Amino acid sequence: MKRLFCFVFFLIIIPTAVSAVNDLSIASDGISFNRNLPFLEGQLVRIYATVENKGDTDLKGVAKFFAGNPREQIGTDQPISAVLENTDTVFVDASFIPGSHLLTITVIPFDADDDVIANNNLTTTITVLSDSDRDGKTNELDTDDDNDGVLDLNDAFPLDRKESRDTDGDGTGDNTDTDDDNDGVLDLNDAFSLDARESKDTDSDGVGDTTDIYPTNPLESRDFDNDGVGDNSDTDADNDDIEKTSDTNDTNLGPILEVDRIPSLTSTEREIVIDPSESSDPDGTVVAITVVINELSAPADGVQNVSPFETTLMPGEKLPYRFAQEGQYSVVVNATDDKGESRSKTFEVTVRNLLSYWVKGVIWLLVFVVFLIAITMYRKVRNNMPKPRKNISKKAAISVAKKTTTRSKNKK
């Protein structure tokens, strides 16, 4: 009986004590990458899985890599060979579309006896950012997502490098669309495939027949002033009385400069107003008005009284101005329109210091009054002085003496 008991103990207990434990596991930090998160669209990423042998013998198995939910395997099974109390690291390479992706790694030992299934799976989530042109910049930071040379702001198809424009707005890019302007004429037969108003150019002058006033004359296409003479032949195409040879833009009427009368004579004590506020442009807008004031002639001392003055007025604005010194000045007012054409007017202004003239006048008046007073006093003094006796001749003296003697005799 004792022998039988020992035999059973040997068959049951001893094998259990010496049987091997098979456990391949993947720890919570068993997933790693060759790049830092987040990843970019299309970027090749190497995914590592580190498998630990928790058994008491060398173990082998495979690791499977999955992405998404439902899961889709990435690559093929990766063989694991982990020696006792060591790890084995395997990897796969993958790239992802933009978005959030669930990664799962499953470890399957070849000998599943005693394997702890709970530590055979590990999941993690990765984020992949959009990088449509694979240039290493996220679309959020990239100004040209499809790298077609057209900035996203101007690109009707910012994620399609084959397309950038959709002239007729039908959702089909011009490169693919057979009628880009949707005028019913195929691009192959359309002389203006991007202009729905035009499709034919009879005289081949680059101006469509619909717009061309002279559709059969290749030398003319417009008549700006509607005088029956084409602009190329017309010596004053805009009829603004400025010959083409002198007109900076012969198809632009230019601004009409209106300036209220500026006095030709003023004083340093008086403020004048330079008023071009009524200026206008019949075929555009007046964008700026400049005023330049220069001294034409220096005073006798040869020193300029004032430096040139220049300012820019907004349309409708007036300029109050006071001359600081007397002299001769030019006032030039110039108006410029939105096409860059200008008109100007020049005024000459004489400036006097009236206060100095008043002072001089008063001084001369005082001098004159003093002079008159002096003359008057002189005459009074002279009239009050005794008159001196006048010299008489001998004949006159004898005659006087005779008269005196005769008077004396008569008295006796």
Topology:
Layout: H1 2-18, E1 24-33, E2 39-40, E3 45-53, E4 59-67, E5 72-73, E6 78-82, E7 87-94, E8 99-109, E9 121-129, E10 265-267, E11 271-274, E12 286-297, E13 309-313, E14 319-322, E15 327-337, E16 342-352, H2 354-383, H3 394-411
Parallel strand pairs: 2-9, 10-16
Antiparallel strand pairs: 1-3, 3-7, 4-5, 4-6, 4-8, 8-9, 11-14, 12-13, 12-15, 15-16
Report the principal-axis shape: elongated
Task: Report the order of strands and helices.
Answer: HEEEEEEEEEEEEEEEEHH
Largest sheet: 6 strands, mixed
Number of strands: 16
What structural class should be given to the helix and strand makeup?
Answer: alpha+beta
What fraction of the residues are assigned to beta strands by DSSP? 25-35%
Query: What does the average pLDDT come to?
Result: 86
Could you describe the 3D structure shown?
With 412 residues, the protein is an alpha+beta fold. The protein has helices at 2-18, 354-383, 394-411, and strands at 24-33, 39-40, 45-53, 59-67, 72-73, 78-82, 87-94, 99-109, 121-129, 265-267, 271-274, 286-297, 309-313, 319-322, 327-337, 342-352. Strand 15 and strand 16 form a beta hairpin. It is elongated, with a radius of gyration of 57 Å.
